[in-house]
Amino acid sequence: MQFLITTFWIVFFVAAALCLGWLFRTMIIRLAPTNFAASMRRAPLTASFGMLVILLYIFVALFAPVLAPFGEREIVGGEFLPWSSEHLLGTDNLGRDMLTRMIYGARNTVGIALATTALAFVVGALLGLLAATVGGWLDQVLGRTVDVLMAIPALIFSLLLLTIFGTSVTTLILVIALIDSTRVFRLARSVAIGIVVMDYIEAAKLRGEGLWYLITREILPNAMAPLVAEFGLRFCFVFLAISALSFLGLGIQPPTADWGSMVRENATLITFGDITPLLPAGAIALLTVAVNFVVDWKLHEASGLKE
Amino acid sequence: MGTQSKDNPVLLRIRDLRIEGSSEDQWTEIVRGVNLTLRKGEVLGLIGESGAGKSTIGLACMGFVRDGCRFSDGSIEFDGIDLRKASRAEARALRGKRIAYVAQSAAASFNPAHRLIDQYSEGPVFHGVMSRGEAESDAVELYRRMQLPNPNEIGFRYPHQVSGGQLQRAMTAMAMSCRPDLIIFDEPTTALDVTTQIEVLSAIRDIIRQFGTAAIYISHDLAVVAQMADRIKVLLRGEEVEEADTYAMLAQPREDYTKSLWAVRSHARPEQPPVTDGTPIVSVRNVTAGYGQTIILQDVGFDIHPRRTVAVVGESGSGKSTAARVITGLLPPSDGEVFFDGGLLPPDYRKRSRDQLRQIQMIYQMADTALNPKLRIRDLIGRPAQMYLGLKGRALDDRVRALLSLIELEPEEYLDRLPSELSGGQKQRIGIARALAAEPKFIICDEVTSALDQIVAEGILQLLERLQSEFDLGYMFITHDLSTVRAIADEVVVMKEGRVVEQGPKTEMFQPPHDPYTELLLSSVAEMDPDWLTNLLAQRAAT
User: Fold this and answer.
1) Residue of B nearest to A306 (CA)
2) Is the pLDDT reported for residue A300 higher than 90?
3) Where are the domains of chain A?
4) pLDDT given at position A306
5) For this UniProt entry, which segments traverse the membrane (chain A) (predicted)?
């Protein structure tokens, strides 16, 4: 019986997600400009569901102060209050409203993850394309440096660096961006290596084009598809890394709301059979899945396959 | 070729075949009602320009359509079996065993991770024709019949260890492994140079005769098809233009389209008086160049005058393209110099001034890789004009439009297209426009027509010739195709193994006495005579 009920819920959620995706897609096709609508028409339901979820998260993150019923750090009642009409998701270990912290957590965790990924990409992709284009000793120096950085396990390395430089949001972003940019560097370089041997790059060099033009106009547009796909995946990894660091106490520092640390702070509740501490984890999981749905679709499109 | 096949039983009969292909969610007909009858032991040539549906029909003879295509009507009957109705398993039992396929690019069709003999044995063992051991000894036998060097050992090499021509022969041997009734050859010699082409052609012809195999030979080169086929079918846009016996077809083509295929070869540039005075636009003097320790070019020298075309001829690996790389500055020579309009050019392109770079432009063989697929035509052509001439906004737009009209493309229609939205010939025209946009004095054309079929290539050659007289351009024309040389060159430089073996005005080159190598190149050009190959081989065997 229990099994049947579980199955029912799973089927229900999947169906609901696909319905939402369909509704969202129909809406976009109606409202969006024609060329975007045309590409949306070919999007699978999973991808449109993913986009809907991502938009929702962005909306929540942007309008956190308006949406949240209480202040981020405000103690509003007793500790570990159960779900009620006043505190929809109860309160945490210090008596702060759980729903409020979830909403602010979206802003902090997603915002920091986005900034980190963007930084990792700007640095990693530019250096990778530069290494492939210039070649020679620059390629060797950058390549070997990256090898050294990649030889150290990422989590241990970030723990080490955060212990040395202290735990502020800025150092957190810089440290994770540095570690992740090595992965981006490798991808960007290997993609660009295949592009720089093309005749059109030779033609551009013979035309006397500078390095910046070569990289941004001739190489980057052709390397975009794998980089975009990697961006989505990398975003999830960064997201998980920040949450993991927060869970370990070296990430985003209290009292700032963050999904990773929220799991740790309220972990005791799990022993009492309460699922509240797992909600932040669920929020992380949902966003990760959503991002991957969209990335899968983009990858599929970039590879030129038709179903 | 023989007349004995006329009374043989019919092997393959295709009736009113229609195949559709999808593009942008729409189905368009690409083969429109083609009929075809092939008797046992007969060779049918399919010819037409690209997009005529030759390859699609070739694959359909195996009951196969490419992804994104579908059969819409008609029947394909192979020895009493309807291939359109056959199940997957039935079709698989036939393919490789009774119907085999030889693809255009052997290098791309062999699996690079396995030895030739392993790939040879795969078919016979899979179909249960032979055991593995029998297949291996059979492979050696067929390699010997295909006149491959070291037939006992060559099978144990990997595909990258043998040359292109040998690979193509190994592939034909592989297609023969199950002794099929029908082989489909899809442009098997198109990617090879003339001297290799002859070896492959004669080997293929011998082996299909020895085994009495029927064949469909697909090519866009009429002279090649004439050597191989008993009958020729001409296709245009998925429809049959005409079909006749090879001799009859060559002697008296009926349709205008077929006649135009013949006419292409007759184009020849009128003779121009040799230049004796004046500074050459580009002068290469005693150039030796190579990569690391390997020397590719040795003591190469030639002059190119304004308004003249110098064809540089030779087989692949002879150093033609390396000479071009030295002129453009991509490969600084270890010895010798290059002069432009009397002035010494810095050996490395990075040391050249913007104006020196502007004066020497290049048009590439593969327009696909020479145009950035993510840039629109407007930017592709506009960039050199913007960079070298400092044009902006309205002036730049006008210039791009003028250039497009110059290469006979409608500006309104093409300005905002991507290269992928153009045909092969149109892409090559964009490549020409990009070179012209810099307003150069000298253009290097690196095998610009070899990836195009004859009618399109003819258009490109005429365009280049017109532009030359309009803008006083000097051309260096790299090619391995001597009929192109005849069509466009004023002077010829013949290269072999990095050296110039002979050079002079075109008329002199095409008349004896020749250097032995020039002689070999000249005699290897396929002629519009069905007996040409037979006579040539007999002649070479005699000497």
Assistant:
1) B68
2) no
3) 1-42, 100-302
4) 44
5) 6-24, 45-68, 112-138, 150-178, 231-252, 272-295
pLDDT band, residue B401 (cuts 50/70/90): very high
Whether the full predicted model's pTM is greater than 0.80, yes or no, is no
Closest partner residue to A199 (CB to CB) among B68, B357, B370 is B370
Cα of A303 to nearest chain B Cα, Å: 14
List, for residues A185-222, the tens digit of each pLDDT value. 999 999 999 899 888 999 999 998 989 999 999 999 88
Q: Which two tokens stand for residue B528?
A: 């519009």
In chain A, where does DSSP find H-type helix?
Answer: 2-31, 34-41, 45-62, 64-67, 98-105, 111-134, 136-151, 154-165, 169-196, 199-207, 211-213, 220-248, 259-265, 278-302
Domain extent at residue B447? 282-511
CATH number for the domain whose boundaries are A100-302 = 1.10.3720.10
CATH code for the domain in which residue B292 is found? 3.40.50.300
Number of residues that make up chain A:
307
Any domain includes B390: yes
Contact A258, A246 (CB under 8 A): yes
Per CB-CB distance under 8 Å, the chain B contacts of A136 are none
| CB of A283 closer than 8 Å to CB of A103 | no
From chain A, the residues in CB contact with B373 under 8 A are: 222
Nearest CA in chain A to B362: A203
Give the type of residue at B333: P
> SS3 breakdown of chain B: % helix, strand, coil, rounded to 5?
40, 25, 35
Strands of B193-281, DSSP E: 214-219, 231-236, 239-245
The number of C-alpha atoms within 13 Å of B248 and in the hemisphere containing its C-beta is 10
Beta-carbon contacts of A144 under 8 Å, excluding residues fewer than 6 positions away, are none
Closest CA to A176 of A252, A101, A107: A252
Are B114 and B167 spatial neighbours (Cβ–Cβ below 8 Å)?
A: no
Rounded CA gap, B541 and A94, in Å? 100
Q: Which residue of A has its CA nearest to B350?
A: A208
Confidence of residue B265 (pLDDT cuts 50, 70, 90): low
The answer to whether position B424 is within a domain reads: yes
The tens digit of pLDDT for each residue in B169-210 reads 888 888 888 888 899 998 888 777 777 888 888 888 888 888
Pairs of residues, one from chain A and one from chain B, whose beta carbons lie less than 8 Å apart: 43
B414 assigned to some structural domain:
yes
Question: What is the ipTM metric for this complex?
Answer: 0.76
In a 3-state reduction of DSSP, which class is residue B233? strand
Taking the Cβ of residue A207 and every Cβ of chain B, the question of whether any pair is shorter than 8 Å is answered with yes
Q: Is position B475 within any domain?
A: yes
Residues of chain B contacting A, Cβ within 8 Å: 68, 328-330, 349, 352, 354, 357, 362, 364, 366, 369-375, 383-384, 387, 434, 438
